[in-house]
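Dear colleagues,

As part of the handover before I leave the project, I'm documenting each prediction I ran so the next person doesn't have to rerun anything. This entry is a single chain, and its sequence is reproduced below.
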Amino acid sequence: MANWLIAGLGNPGPQYEQTRHNVGFWSLDQLAYDMKTTFTVDNKYHGQLAQCQSSQHKIFLLKPLLFMNRSGQSVAALANFYKIPPCNILIIHDELDLPTGTARLKRGGGHGGHNGLRDIITCTNSNDFLRCRIGIAHPGDSRQVADYVLSKPSQTDRQNIVSAISDSLCALPDIFSGDLEKAMHWLHSQ
């Protein structure tokens, strides 16, 4: 039975709950609901943890409760304890470089300026994990990025983001079965 870690990135605290930067948390909340599991705080992994099992996989859902730029400590702690290789780690995060409501999968690559990814690469000593990038669009001016990602999307944008999250979660069975190409092809044609 293979272990998988799915981490959704966000910032802890009620003031960030509805912000664009927390779409990773939104994704995991939906996934936990779909899998009929709930999160509990686990201080050993600096986050909220939920677990579920299929016939072939044990799946750990992790919402780091450290701030975004320290997410790697949480991801690395759980991955190291359960000996989950980077190829079985999926990070779900917001993506400025994609239109709102777009979801894209990829394996590896750099951090693209995303502080959560930067810390995960540093703490896991690898960039060979999967990323599910949920588009939030760019505000158009790099000086506005910090305020933009920490603000709430419009109702229409939120609906589009939630729709992209649902699409991305439909790709999980193919990801778990090792058919990343099929998952990418399906998701990228939505």
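The chain has seven helices and seven strands. The radius of gyration is 15 Å.

All the best with the project,
I.
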